[in-house]
Amino acid sequence: MITESKILIVDDEKTQRDALAQLLEMDGYAVKTASNGAAALNIIDRFMPSVVITDFKMPNMSGSQLISAIKKKNPLIEAIVVTAYGNIDIAVDAMKKGAYDFITKPIDFEHLSILIKKASEKRMITIENIQLKQQLSSVSHKIIGESDSIKKVLSVVKRVAGTDVPVMITGESGTGKELVVDALHKSSGRKGNLIKINAAAIPIDLLESELFGYEKGAFTGAESSKVGKFDLASKGTLFLDEIGDMPYNLQSKLLRVLQEKMVMPIGASSEHPIDVRIIAATNQNLDKRISTGAFRNDLYYRLSVIKIDVPPLRERKEDIPILAEEFCREFARRYNKNIKGFTQEALQALTNYDYPGNIRELRNYVERAVILSHSSLIDVSLMPSELKNIQPDASISIDNGLEAAVEALERDLIKNALETTGMVQTRAAQKLKISERVLRYKLAKYGFK
């Protein structure tokens, strides 16, 4: 029995409420009683019950009226109405006003116990959902932006955070993949820690022992046992960053963990179960690594039950001013500067740039500008040369006629598509929504090599 559950019994018949209170106390509940609705409302302020059991027919304030008053005070309190057999229609009306359920007289205590447990469970689920929404709100503000692409990322995070399915996060370096990981974990409701490990940053011969741990004497130098990352993340989340760099032989062991939910430290004689949610991330093209035999196809599909692609900054330029202003406020506080923002010219220079280093690069530029600034507005003179030297393409001008302007624009769009897809013509054609044959024709037409 969960002793934290508190019950308030409201009945104008003393014998009835005292008998019910005694039975519930024997069942492990903390119980208070009230003889009428007004007394019940006073007790609620001090006692904060999980469930109120109220008789329907009472003088001055009916059970239905009491429930309405309770829900105004605290909508999380559940209520069960006790009614005579012939008053079921009235009890149903009370349920419409917020009662969880009703029970008829004479009270079947076993049935009442079941109703109390179900009402308490409903209350806890409601509270957990509110907490999850609050957690999601608190972490989502770190994923800043108003673009459709970033709203799509946040929408997926909201829908899958409470599940235990593996998630694969893809995106270029510096796009904010780790912020998505933080949002998923903090909004998951999992009680354990978020443990992070970068597969590219740990030597190949040490990565297995870092993940699985080892027993004392498992190998030369193992003078004591070591807990692996899987166990450190128990009941929490394990984030495998740069999963594309994981050695092939270790990929098969990770696949088995995902399938069996069991791990065996190096040198151990038996496996043990784990409860861990796996999130992986990469900035590599895993399809290409699969085709070359560097990454297991079956592991990829296991990790990619849910896939979240974090867009590069150049594809969400409308978010650049929002991000820049947020970083400006952050660094102004850190360095104790009285800086209100950017001049229009500086903001335009920031927005025009394509940021191969994505958000990380933008953040660095803003920090530099805040440190160097001596006025309340950051001027374009504080921008690095690569931002200040960007000028609109002079060739796109109606002075040369409409046909020449259209060709200049088309040439620039093709160039941008090639650059943003790593010069892969198939992907560039998909981005431009034209066939590869048409793209090859236009590459030849505009002299691309």
How would you describe the overall organization of this protein?
The chain has 449 residues and is α/β, with parallel strands linked by helices. It has four domains: 6-129, 3-Layer(aba) Sandwich (Rossmann fold); 155-309, P-loop containing nucleotide triphosphate hydrolases (Rossmann fold, 3-Layer(aba) Sandwich); 313-388, Helicase, Ruva Protein, domain 3 (Orthogonal Bundle), CATH 1.10.8.60; 398-445, Arc Repressor Mutant, subunit A, CATH 1.10.10. The chain is built from 19 helices and 16 strands. It has helices spanning 14-26, 37-47, 63-73, 88-96, 109-140, 148-160, 177-186, 204-212, 229-232, 248-260, 286-291, 297-303, 320-334, 344-352, 358-372, 385-388, 402-420, 425-432, 436-445, and strands spanning 6-10, 30-34, 51-55, 78-83, 101-104, 167-170, 194-198, 213-214, 226-227, 237-241, 262-263, 272-273, 277-282, 306-309, 341-342, 377-378. Helix 3 (63-73) links the parallel strand 3 and strand 4 (78-83).
Low-pLDDT stretches: 136-141
Shape: extended
Q: Average pLDDT, to the nearest integer?
A: 86
Number of strands: 16
Question: What is the terminal-to-terminal distance?
Answer: 75 Å
CATH superfamily of the largest domain: P-loop containing nucleotide triphosphate hydrolases
Strand order of the largest sheet: 2-1-3-4-5
Number of helices: 19
Helix content: 40-55%
Find the structural class using helix and strand composition. alpha/beta
Number of self-contained structural domains: 4
Q: Describe the main β-sheet briefly.
A: 5 strands, parallel
Q: What is the CATH first-level class name of the largest domain?
A: Alpha Beta
CATH architecture annotation name of the largest domain: 3-Layer(aba) Sandwich
Estimated radius of gyration:
31 Å
Strand fraction: 5-15%
